[in-house]
Write a structure and sequence with these properties.
Strand order of the largest sheet: 3-4-5-6
Number of domains: 1
Shape: flat
Number of helices: 1
Structural class: alpha+beta
Distance between the termini: 14 Å
Radius of gyration: 14 Å
Length: 97
């Protein structure tokens, strides 16, 4: 599935994707990559009830003072945005895992 995003007159088609992995507890990971300083960025569905929540984890990296922040280039920002939008699509009625 793909969606068309238009922001400030700029349009881009974003191809949504299925989860890239499953956690040990059976929840879906929608992204898992490193930012420009080596911090791990992961988007994972939450187990909190109701299940319409998502975690964005920022872990480690070369910058010790990142305080849970990610330093993203354009490609990485697109990856994060696509992961979040892909998760949003799973919240639609009728979505089958």
């Amino acid at each position: 599935m793909a969606i068309l995003l238009t922001i400030h007159g700029l349009s881009r088609t974003v191809k949504l994707h299925k989860p890239v992995a499953t956690t040990d507890r059976g929840f879906s990971d929608f992204a898992n990559f490193d930012d420009t300083y080596g911090a791990g960025v992961r988007v994972t569905e939450s187990s909190a009830e109701p299940l319409d929540k998502v975690w964005v984890f920022i872990e480690g990296g070369a910058v010790n003072h990142n305080n849970g922040s990610a330093h993203l280039n354009v490609k990485q920002a697109e990856k994060l945005a696509t992961a979040l939008l892909s998760w949003v699509a799973t919240q639609e009625p009728g979505y089958v895992k």
